[in-house]
Design a protein that fits this description.
Elements: H1 2-7, E1 15-18, H2 27-39, H3 43-61, H4 66-74, E2 78-81, H5 87-96, E3 101-104, H6 112-115, E4 122-126, H7 138-149, E5 156-161, E6 171-176, H8 185-208, H9 228-236, H10 244-252
Helix pairs in contact: 3-10, 7-8
Length: 260
């Protein structure tokens, strides 16, 4: 998100970040308990590395993350989104008057009324080769399917139209991405989002030129957070949600900022 925002800072009129601990989703404890009941203790390192540790790192370093820092420097409004279809967010969108809504694997579904607030609707970047692996953790399912079939994982990124259904809009641009062997679901997600910036730019360029609307593929089954049995089976085949490289990268972020 920070890389995309830096490249398009002159065009951004509003940035919204979904609150992962919002009350409507159960808060931090409620969500942790829900994931623990479904996925068991194997889910906890994934949740910690991807959600809790970044916030802890920012607090300990007393430094802004790149995206908030860019918004502050450029005077771009930044809001924490508790309810994307609620009155507060709709008022913020109306005030910003965007032409297009762009999301990066956003975890809230925009309603038709919310999408209609932007004349050009919305576009989302999803780290999978849609319609495969719709849902919140597509990199895990790509790894799991590859392991079950004895094949390399089918990694990729897709820019697609936002519709009021999870990852089901028309595909605007798509690209397969080869990742290093042994990558975890967490590591793959980071690499795929970085690769997706160019795919998203391709889709936006096509829209500006009035082409590339694409077609909506027939949705394949939704891929939720994996349950405990699936995670055990995946682990036996060498599939990991988090590996040592993810912890190393996360712990590096805890180091004090270099003076000056």
């Amino acid at each position: 998100m920070a890389r995309f925002a830096a490249a398009h800072a002159g065009e951004l009129v509003l940035v919204g970040r979904s609150d992962p601990y919002r009350r409507a989703a159960g808060g931090a404890l409620g969500q942790t308990w829900r994931h623990l009941r479904r996925g068991g203790p194997r889910m906890l390192p994934y949740l910690f590395v991807n959600f809790s540790l970044p916030r802890l790192a920012a607090a300990l370093r007393r430094a802004e993350a790149p995206l908030p820092a860019l918004c502050r420097a450029r005077g771009i409004p930044l809001v924490e989104v508790a309810e994307v279809n609620g009155p507060a967010m709709r008022d913020a969108i109306r005030a910003a008057r965007p032409d297009l809504l762009v999301s990066f694997h956003f975890d809230q579904i925009l309603s038709a009324a919310t999408l209609a607030l932007a004349p050009l609707g919305g576009v989302n970047l999803h780290p999978s080769l849609l319609p495969r692996h719709r849902g919140p953790i597509p990199a895990f399912w790509a790894l799991w399917e590859g392991a079950m079939r004895g094949e390399p994982p089918a990694f990729g990124v897709t820019a697609h139209r936002l519709v009021p259904r999870i990852d089901a809009g028309a595909v605007l641009a798509q690209r397969a991405v080869a990742l290093p062997a042994g990558v975890s679901a967490s590591g793959a997600a980071r690499l795929l989002h970085l690769a997706g910036v160019a795919v998203l730019d391709e889709a936006l360029a096509a829209l500006r030129q009035g082409r590339g609307e694409g077609e909506a593929p027939a949705p394949l089954p939704y891929c939720p957070f994996p349950d405990a049995a699936t995670l055990r089976q995946a682990a036996r085949r060498g599939v990991r949600l988090v590996n040592r490289a993810d912890w190393r990268d996360a712990l590096a972020a805890l180091a004090p900022a270099t003076p000056g």
